[in-house]
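User: My advisor, Dr. K., asked me to get a structural model of this assembly before our group meeting. I'm new to this, so sorry if the format is off. These are the inputs:
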Amino acid sequence: GRETVTSALKKPLVPASLNLSEYFKQFLFPQNECELHDFRLSFSQLKWDNWIVAPHRYNPRYCKGECPRAVGHRYGSPVHTMVQNIIYEKQLDSSVPRPSCVPAKYSPLSVLTIEPDGSIAYKEYEDMIATKCTCR
Amino acid sequence: SLASRGGAQMAASAELEPEAEPWSWLQPPDGRDRSGLLPPLFKVLCDGQGGLPRLQPDSRALRYMKRLYKAYATKEGIPKSNRSHLYNTVRLFTPHIQHKEQASVDQVTGPVPSVDLLFNLDRVTAVEHLLKSVLLYTFNTSASFPSAAQCVCHLVLREPESSASKTPPRAPRSGTFTAPFELKKKYKWVEVDVTALLQPLVASDKRSVHVSVAFTCVKDKLQRPSVQDSPFNLVRPSLLLYLNDTSAQAHHRWYSLHYKRSPSQVPDQRGLPACPVGEEAAQRVRSPRHRR
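Assistant: The format is fine. Below is the predicted structure of the whole assembly, which you can bring to the meeting.
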């Protein structure tokens, strides 16, 4: 295989037209990767401000973006996600989708509401605000 | 093939009920309406019943609850973690009926006029366990009153009048309940702890509480206790219930507090027991030695 190795070494690593900084940029700053986004909602938009007294603004946040190959160390994804990514990239089966960008952790929300009988309730609900994303 | 058959069944059932609301798919297949299982917030999120007509709450009560909210949560609605108590629900009820009547004679102060209050606790759900309850008084600011006074609150629990009942009303179960408290000019609110009186009622799923309230106050040590049904014109009280909602949708503070301290013990989603018991706890004790 010595001939093949030497011939491979002779090939230019990077196409002459593309300069190095552009070439490396695609690895250093991947575009629209999976990450957390804000979505500030006011209950008056939903016309619920007649029964939800507080908070005035609610930011449930959401996860959006593409799942890169190196999902392991960045998103704490299980090995299954990398396997699914490889199946998707090599198109071994067209029905297998790319891994999805979904919330991994949440925080609670405190709500002050007026009940139909006129009583007032302060309640803390679990899992109402996404705080971390992952690829699955 | 199993999955495809399941999918076909799902598709078939969807064709059968084209108008079904998406959230109704969460309902159990037997069709019985168990909307009580859904927390109120989730119910509204699904079927947009936020527009239901609502009785307007008492403005003083609303002001108190807004202050409580600011003390417990940030502007974005995140519960403040500097609180150690275990309740994740606070409910405030204003009384429906109140009328004055002569109550029992008190050996110290003679006839004690009292005020009758009726609270409707329909909104308390079976999964909400009572931790503390107080009668919340505020002052009628126009009334003049001394800088401080020692008071005692006398409560008598009454069976709610049910017109349909044939049996003569039983004698009111006297809540041999006296709650001392101090009135001070600088306090805007006075809380009279009635937990011991209400605990059995809320635990037995009682839907309404009928109670007569009277006060005896002493402005200074020398004076005889004077009888008032509402000293210094206290405004009619609200009933505050501090509850621990045990449903899965409610935020359980003790849980996050416990697992925040020892990240290695964060339970994985397969539902490890909430608190380490027996072998696991012993194992944890052993692990430091193992690490050494």
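One thing worth pointing out at the meeting: The two ends of chain A are 41 Å apart (CA to CA).

User: Perfect, thanks a lot.
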